[in-house]
Design goal:
alpha/beta, 4-stranded mixed sheet, 2 domains, 25% strand, 60s Ribosomal Protein L30, Chain: A, binds iron/sulfur cluster
Length: 279
């Protein structure tokens, strides 16, 4: 059994929070560049400005966006790994330190229906854990801004509902909320499982690299079809019109109950930030 100390988790998480907020994912940046080549007019200008913003942030070590998000953390914990100390507390402490040292905005409030006081250190983070084989700890941090989080949706379909109805739900969600979610968007879709599982799948699907093909052929076809239809909505970069409303549609599926068909959509803005490490 391999052992790691809470301190190394704290420092790794702190660094990841800063890196994720200063440096955009390479695949997202590349995809924005490609989109810029096929756009013209205002759409081209919007993408050029976004790309300049990304470069300035990386060069000057400042956040890509003022909304530095609620920290969403995916932990893959090797079953042959022992953590000395409290794993969850170590992650929360890392977020606390990372947001403070990186001068990242604290956006988390305590009681959603109460006084909504800012907790002052961007904690608590949202932590998803998964037990895997091996003796390593994989940590992925996604700072999630709420301009796009608010554009998300979930619906419990009937197993008899048609594919057309499901596609319409996804497309109409983007049509309705997409313009306020800072497009070009990355659309995460979770299909199956339970109410909460499909939401988690939708979020997790955002971690898949843009352009990386879905292993499942049917999902891959659906991703392609949805992306085409979403891009024909004409919302465009920054909502100014154009061909690029979304950069990708990523679908994740999971077996579900005979009586149900849960579908969740989790939307990310162009600022799809993510950093990960293995310790
Ligand atoms: S939706 Fe994204 S780009 Fe827009 S303000 Fe929020 S974090 Fe920033």
């Amino acid at each position: 059994m391999r052992m790691i100390y809470g301190d190394s988790i704290v420092s790794t998480v702190a660094k990841l929070c800063i890196t994720a907020n200063y440096k955009l994912r390479t695949d997202v940046k590349q995809s924005l560049k490609i989109a810029g080549r096929r756009e013209k007019g205002l759409a081209k200008y919007a993408l050029k400005t976004i790309l300049e913003n990304i470069d300035i942030a990386a060069k000057e070590h400042i956040p890509i966006c003022q909304d530095t998000g609620m920290a969403v953390v995916f932990l893959e914990i090797g079953q042959d790994l022992q953590v000395k100390g409290n794993l969850i507390e170590a992650v929360q402490e890392g977020v606390r330190i990372g947001y403070k040292n990186g001068y990242l905005r604290s956006s988390v409030i305590d009681e959603p229906l109460g006084e909504r006081r800012n907790t002052g250190d961007n904690t608590p983070a949202i932590i998803h854990t998964n037990i895997t084989a091996g003796d390593k700890l994989k940590i992925a941090i996604l700072p999630k801004g709420f301009g796009s989080e608010n554009a998300s949706a979930l619906q419990m379909f009937k197993p008899t509902d048609s594919m057309k109805k499901i596609e319409n739900f996804i497309i109409e969600t983007v049509r309705k909320y997409g313009p306020n979610a800072c497009p070009p968007l990355i659309i995460g879709v979770g299909i199956g499982g339970t109410f909460e599982k499909c939401a988690e799948l939708a979020k997790k699907s955002l971690t898949r690299q843009i352009g990386k093909l879905n292993k499942d052929l049917n999902s891959r076809k659906l991703e392609k079809r949805l992306l085409k239809k979403i891009n024909s909505l004409g919302i465009g970069p920054a909502g100014l019109g154009g061909k690029t409303t979304a950069l990708a549609v990523n679908i994740e599926t999971y077996p579900t109950h005979i009586a149900g068909l849960p579908i969740a959509i989790n939307i990310s803005c162009w600022a799809l930030r993510q950093a990960q490490a293995v310790i």
